[in-house]
Design brief:
By secondary structure, the chain is α/β, with parallel strands linked by helices. Helix content is 38%, strand content 17%. It is globular. The chain binds manganese (II) ion.
Length: 575
Amino acid sequence: MGILITDTTLRDAHQSLIATRMRTRDMLPIAAELDRVGFFSLEVWGGATFDACIRFLNEDPWERLRSLREKVKNTRLQMLLRGQNLVGYRHYADDVLKEFIRLSVKNGIDVFRIFDALNDIRNMELAIKVAKEHRAHVQGSICYTTSPVHTTDKFVAMAVELERLGCDSICIKDMAGLISPAAAAELVKAIKSKVNAPLNLHSHCSCGMAPLSYYAASLAGADILDTAFSAFGWGTSQPPTESMVAAFKDTPYDTGLDLELLYEIGEYFAAVSGKYRMLFTAETTRPNVNVLLHQIPGGMLSNLVSQLREQNALDKFSQVLEEVPRVRADLGYPPLVTPTSQVVGIQAVLNILAGARYKQVTQEVKNYLLGQYGRPPGEINEEVRKQVTGEERPIDVRPADRIKPELPALREEGHKLGIIHRDEDLVTYALYPQVAVKFLRGELKEEAMPSLPETTAKSTAVPDLPLELSVDVDGEVFNVKIASVLGKTIEVEKAKKPKQLPPGAVTSPMQGMVLAVKVKVGDKVKAGDALITIEAMKMQNQVTAPHSGTVKEILTFQGEVVNSGDVLMVVEQNG
Ligand code: MN
């Protein structure tokens, strides 16, 4: 039997390389051709695509799925489902999960690749069961990682358990591209000796080993491999479809796919990648063996770069990468995949930006330490737990067991807001209550396609024009003297002292959106009390009172986008 191929160009590939920004209009013209290839499946949905559609592209993800389904008549459409987290970043109630899966099938999904970030099967069981009830193909996934607590035996035991639960195939999900050829061969052999279901290896070229690991896995008995068309392959994405198919040609592993047709489709995607070329960065396109240390998956890596850029802290990138494994060890070595990659990654960012570890902590890290993501693979650093959660004890049941049905109240709210026009809208609202309201009301716009910077042609027309500017960066005013327009010498000097902050000012520690203002003018607060919740980098961050006192003035509102250093409120100190 030859190797089967799942093509990920329309999901994981652009998620990993260009922060999930490919538009549906760039997918549809090639969909019928993709259908002709004979792939085992096309991964087109789930993961971050749902969020990115709404947040950045002003696209309805359900509509994307339906229009792809119309054009792809024969090939299975596959999605990535984060177990009880669905396509979000927290655990949802069981009723939301059931409705999400029902509608996913109804709109065109055939294959659910289901995983849990902690490999806690309790968080996958219901999704597996419900997807099976809808007669979908269920691929149970093992999040592959390396750590002192992860062993081949444990991975095999998990594969056996997933097959026992009825999974139709098993996936080794190597989301960060860590698996070496030898490790892949060993793990594939070990799983195949205990499991009958077809075995899929999903990896990324992040450190450059994936094509070798695919070959080793194939020799060891893997059945399915994930690839992406070359223009959206390599780097933090999958190995190229065309190259892998060519590599196996005329061997017992021959995929049987038509290289000429693949070449034609490849040319189409090469043209599409040209439109997005400003989003491809060196960090995501170049192999980097450092990934073996920090373990950040492709999707998260491109996100981290763009988020650090937003916070004006791209120069801290390598420091953050070094902090990631330390935070991960503190949290009991979770595999780094959404949402744990965000939880760990953002905490690492905060530890570096704040200049002190766990001084600023996201709500998600707190929840994680309280067991609300499930059972960590290893031991938690007790000192960190005490520092963050105090006396509160972690739960030991399946996190969703503590979540009451969510749909009835949301349905009522949604109808009051006038945003529910079909069943799918309710699920969108349940998944992303903040951004969905604006999206469903039609108040969002597609973000602009990033364009190339102005050509230097214009600049050369006015050579050596001296230019002086005054630039305000977070309250500090810099005098910028541009000695040459071509940018050979740029002098920057700090001009004035930072703007005076009013006494008792509470400033935003980061750029983000205000989700909630938890106090009102006149309230008495104690040092450490939560004042405002800011969503940044998809995580919720509490801004706390720096001192005890009385809220004198509130200078922000729910929904406002604030910058690092902005004054959010004034808390007058007691006495
Ligand atoms: Mn992946």
